[in-house]
Amino acid sequence: MPVYKLIYFKSRGRGEMIRLAFAAAGVKYEDCRLTREEFEELKASGIVPFDQLPILEVDGKILAKSMTICKYVARETGFAPTESFEVAKADMIVDGIDDLTDKGVQVFIEKDEETKVMFLVGINQFKQLWFICQNSKLLSYLQNNYINVNSGRRGDLKKLEEAIPS
C-alpha cells in the first residue's frame, strides 16, 4: 500500500475534495496543513511544482494540481469509473464546479475593491447560469444519468463536497 501525504493550507479549499476521497475509501494518509510561512519555506525548497498547493506525496514522489490529485486518488481507491465515457462524464461535472471555484479564488485574492466587484458580478452571472441549468431539463438529465451521491464516484464526491457547509 502506498504511503500518502497530502500537503495543503489550514483550510478546506482545494484540498478538501482529496480528503473526502481518502475518507470515503477508508485510506489512511498524512494530512499536513501548512501556514503561509511554512508554505513559503516549502516553496523555496523547490519541491512544489507550479508553486501551488495542494500537492500529494506518494512514496516520496510528488503530484500537483488538485483535480489531477483527485483523479489519481479516485482511480487508486476504486472510486473512479473505468469506462471511458463514464470517466468523461465525471470530469465534466468536476470541471464545471472547478470553474466556479476558480472565480471564487479570484475574489478572495484580489486587493483592488473595484476589480473585486467586477469578479463578484462575473460570479453572480455564472451562478445565474448554473441556477438556470439546475432548473432545466439539463440538470434533471445530469442527475438521472450522471450524479449519484451514494455511488462514491469522483464527480459525485465533488457534488457532496459542495453540499457540506464550510
UniProtKB/TrEMBL annotation:
Catalytic reactions of this protein: RX + glutathione = an S-substituted glutathione + a halide anion + H(+)
Pfam family name, one: GST_N
Domain (GST N-terminal): residue spans on this chain: 2-81
GO biological process: one example: glutathione metabolic process
This enzyme's EC code(s): 2.5.1.18
Name of the top EC class for this enzyme: transferase
GO molecular-function terms, A-Z: glutathione transferase activity
Keywords of the record: Transferase
InterPro entries membership: Glutathione_S-Trfase (IPR040079), Glutathione_S-Trfase_N (IPR004045), GST_superfamily (IPR050213), Thioredoxin-like_sf (IPR036249)
Protein name: glutathione transferase
Organism of this sequence: Paramuricea clavata
